Amino acid sequence: MTAKLKLYLGRKILDSLKKKTTITAVDLKPLFEVSGAKQNIQMCISLTKLENYFGISNVSEILKIEPDDIIKSIQTMQDRANRKICFDIDRSIFLKEVVENGKLPSLNEKQKKIVVEYSSPNIAKPFHVGHLRSTIIGNFIANLHAHINNTVTRLNYLGDWGTQFGLIKVGVEELKYSNEDIKQKPLQLLYESYVHANKLAASDNSITERARLEFAKLESGSPKDIEHWKTYINYTISELQFMYNRLGVQFDEYNYESMYNAKHISDVLTKLEKMKILRSTHDGKQVARVSDRDITVVKSDGTTLYLTRDIAAAIDRFKKYEFDKMYYVVENGQNDHFNSLKGILHQMDIPWADRIKHIKFGRIHGMSTRKGKVVFLKDILDETRDLMVQRQLASPTTKVPINNTDTSDILGISCVIINDLKQRRQKDYNFSWDRALQVQGDSGIKLQYTHCRLCSLEKNSGAVAATGCIPDLLPENVVTDLVKELGRFHDVICQAEEQLEACILVTYLFHLCNHINKALKLLQVKSQEAELASQRLLLFNTSRSILKQGMSILGLKPLNEM
């Protein structure tokens, strides 16, 4: 989109400095940003970033670059605390570069291997709103890296191991549920069993002991218990798959905690012992010292912990993927866990320990159905869909058949996703139905509505989009504003990737929609002279392409009509 211009400016800077360096114009390309007040079009580069690259702060040589057909003038500017060099770019050249290249992907010349672990619900427990945030944010991060041409592996690490399975087994026995009962309503009945056993355990220590013994039998490989455990997993996986399909989320691999049970991670435990990272406590536990704290790695009864299994999983994944980065998308409350994981990997002298990163996020408060009930995410999504059906029934502009609940479902899920991703990732926030589903403000509906308007224009305008841009036919100020915003798309992608913050992209798309809708009011396509109509349609088609790319990165399914 603006890649050629950025490469051109990068080469100009390198030539002006006349300094031997291994840095190339490709290295400088991500440092440029599109800006410019009013009708000026500028491409600017931070002096701080240039100094970091070249170790110089003297810009006099760069300022001597001669204006040409592309560069109209060069100046230094102060933006808050940041000094930068700004190149004034010829409007016609900028318009052609942006409008003609809207469908080109944002390629990353230095391809990386990225692993993203996200969602990771527990088998036989409700898919709750914490897992929803992990799923939405993780999907965004995976989509973002795929967009910039990195090799991405999407992992769902299912919690299918631990004392919880002992409690579920006890609960099933106490409630006398048969396999047939559970098969009919797996998540609901297994969760009821878990809750029931927990209530009993609160006043009866023997229940806790029964649950512990049940899990110990599972870890030791008892065939009968393994069979029960596999049944629970098989019953719940299909429900999870349905939920992911509905959210538009896919995974490359499903991993399971059980892959790293005591029998399968003996080599890791042996290495920890040989390196004297583990020591035994008076009560029989094996602990590691991390940040002046004792961290339990093996319990006194010999069973493993989540941390133990995560150590083994990280080692296993690096052998398999040789990743440049592995992201764990898990809530803020697990910060100590991941510090312990990284700390133990460092103690094991693992050279890639710093390649793992905990992507933290805050909690959602108050997310329940309008009746105040929340257990399963399905209830939230169903209510969102039903509310969208009601709104479409009441709207005179609805284009799709009213009985098409798929469209309503996509609209509702778009609202839930955007309401989440427009928040700063690490902040807690309060969920509001009115804010999430607002039609007039910044919401998922706004993005879908704008995309549908652009699709309708392409379908019904009677014009054929031009293959090349003629800037003289697009002289309006509203065009300059829109094209500058389109030209910022790759800058925004770079910022979002650097900070792993979806809200940067969400905010950009809201601004882009404002510019698009303003241009749609002022630039008629239908009934215009053919060449003018084709130029305007090309501009709007490029706008739709950028909007669609951004929506897809966020995890939305762009609608063509609603």
From TrEMBL:
Belongs to the class-I aminoacyl-tRNA synthetase family. NCBIfam families: argS. Its EC number is 6.1.1.19. Residues 447-562 form the DALR anticodon binding domain. It catalyses: tRNA(Arg) + L-arginine + ATP = L-arginyl-tRNA(Arg) + AMP + diphosphate. Signal peptide: none annotated. This is Probable arginine--tRNA ligase, mitochondrial. The lineage of its organism: Eukaryota, Metazoa, Ecdysozoa, Arthropoda, Hexapoda.
